[in-house]
Specification:
- This protein has 6 helices and no strands.
- GO terms for molecular function: DNA binding.
- InterPro entries: Cro/C1-type_HTH (IPR001387), Lambda_DNA-bd_dom_sf (IPR010982).
- This is Helix-turn-helix domain-containing protein.
Length: about 110
């Protein structure tokens, strides 16, 4: 059974380690205790959306990237095929400098 908090923790830990950063560095930047971040990374604690946002900011990674990687891992665990491209109907607004929700120019 896939446990979401474990997948999120694994992805956060992998991102931190790829950057060569310590738990202490990221916990300080995210303004969360080192122990709590460690528990989140080990999948022992659920990160609130606010906490996840702070950790993503500390890692200088968009939350969407973290969640996409989590989603991909879960899809693999479920035996689903993961497309390696973004469907055209989702990418078109971005290509034209438009926000998908509002379809208004960005900026």
């Amino acid at each position: 059974m896939v446990v979401l908090r474990r997948e999120i923790g694994d992805v956060l830990r992998d991102a931190r380690q790829r950057q060569g950063r310590t738990l202490r560095e990221v916990s300080s930047a995210a303004r969360v205790s080192l122990g709590y971040l460690s528990e989140v990374e080990r999948g022992q604690k659920e990160a609130s959306s606010e906490l996840l946002g702070s950790i993503c900011d500390a890692l200088a990674m968009p939350m969407s990237s973290i969640l996409r990687e989590v989603s991909d891992r879960i899809a693999v665990a479920e035996g689903l095929l993961i497309p390696d491209t973004v469907p055209d109907d989702l990418a078109t607004p971005v290509r034209h400098g438009l926000r998908r929700r509002e379809l208004q120019p960005i900026g």
